[in-house]
Specification:
This protein is 23% helix and 25% strand. It starts with a strand and ends with a helix. It has an 8-stranded mixed beta sheet with strand order 1-2-3-14-6-16-5-4, with helices on one face. A 4-stranded antiparallel beta sheet has the order 12-8-9-17. Strands 13-7-15 form a 3-stranded antiparallel beta sheet. The structure holds 2-oxoglutaric acid and fe (ii) ion (FE2). The site of fe (ii) ion has 4 residues, from loops. This is TauD/TfdA family dioxygenase.
Length: 303
């Protein structure tokens, strides 16, 4: 087996990793090299890895506990609930419900109480052009804010809401009702410290409705600014897929978006495994913003 080679692909994030055959298990030193590269580059690209569902799950297990996708229990591989199919292949003659997955900037499963730690996505079929995925570096987003603005954000909580997934309202009505029931709005800290790097980062996205204790009117302009700032081109790595690319990203310190810039009559078929994140956040019981006292009690109740 040849040596692992890590080659940066972008300034903000992204590195390719070659010299590994992921169909077989990793040696401890290979796993450590991958973890170190992941910490440094946030997004790793492993080209030419033609894995079965079992092999993808086994590979993902190297980095933590694999999510079973119970918060969004559709389009899982029938034999492997750990594998979510992100695909525009029609099923039973109906359009796929995951054909527009990831069309606004987000961190996977941030609308749950275990936001995904990381995700591992493998490309099986792709259109001739387009269908790229972009990733933004949330350390940079935080570090480039002014000190007073960082101080304002420190200690704030943001309400993540599954209904803000782009195109959510166009899903099947029964699915909408079920997804809302399973995933009530949940508040997470806006500024978090990455447990492995110790660096602070911004944890917001297009799927945030408001800040806890603030009205939507007060929150909206700040959220719009933060989302625009966080996804500025210099913080972004854009991935152009090849078949059998595996791309893995750290959801704790990146946002991503899947672009619909391709001919939708061409197949795009991806398999995804996600890593279970640390418990975080507290459920917002109704749509009204919580006052600070209620928020403090809720935080105390879960910590
Ligand atoms: O299809 C893609 O490129 C990414 C979709 C997405 O957001 C995801 O799989 O988490
Ligand atoms: Fe995603």
């Amino acid at each position: 087996m040849s040596e692992i080679t890590v080659r940066p692909l972008g300034y903000a994030a992204g590195a390719s990793v070659t010299g590994l055959d992921l169909r077989t298990g990793l040696r401890p030193e290979q796993r450590e090299a991958l973890r170190a590269a992941w910490r440094e580059h946030l997004v790793l690209v492993l080209p030419g890895q033609d894995l079965s569902a079992e092999q993808l799950i086994a590979y993902t297990r190297n980095f933590g506990e694999v999510e079973r996708n119970d918060s969004v229990p559709y389009y899982r591989d029938p034999d492997h609930p750990e594998v979510l199919l992100v695909t525009n292949k029609p099923r039973d003659g109906k359009p796929s419900q995951t054909r527009n997955t990831g069309r606004n900037w987000h961190s996977d499963l941030s609308y749950t109480n275990r936001p995904a730690m990381g995700s591992v996505l493998m490309c099986k079929e792709k259109p001739p052009v387009g269908g790229d995925t972009m990733f933004a570096n949330m350390y940079m987003a935080y570090e480039t804010l002014s000190a007073p603005f960082r101080a304002f954000l420190d200690g704030l909580h943001a309400v993540h809401d599954i209904t803000l997934i782009k195109g959510f309202e166009r899903r099947d009505p029964a699915q909408i009702a079920e997804l809302k029931k399973r995933n009530p709005p949940i508040a997470h800290p806006v500024v978090r410290t990455h447990p492995e790097t110790g660096r602070k980062l911004l944890f917001i996205s297009d799927r945030v409705r408001s800040f806890v204790g603030m009205t939507e009117e007060e929150s909206r302009p700040i959220l719009d600014f933060l989302n625009r700032h966080a996804t500025t081109p210099e913080f972004v790595y854009r991935h152009r897929w090849e078949i059998n690319d595996i791309v893995m990203w750290d959801n704790r310190c990146t946002l991503h978006i899947a672009l619909p810039d391709f001919d939708q009559t061409k197949l795009r078929h991806m398999m995804r495994c996600s890593l279970l994140g640390e418990p975080s956040g507290y459920v917002i019981q109704d749509d009204a913003p919580m006052d600070e006292q209620a928020a403090r009690s809720a935080i105390a109740a879960v910590s």
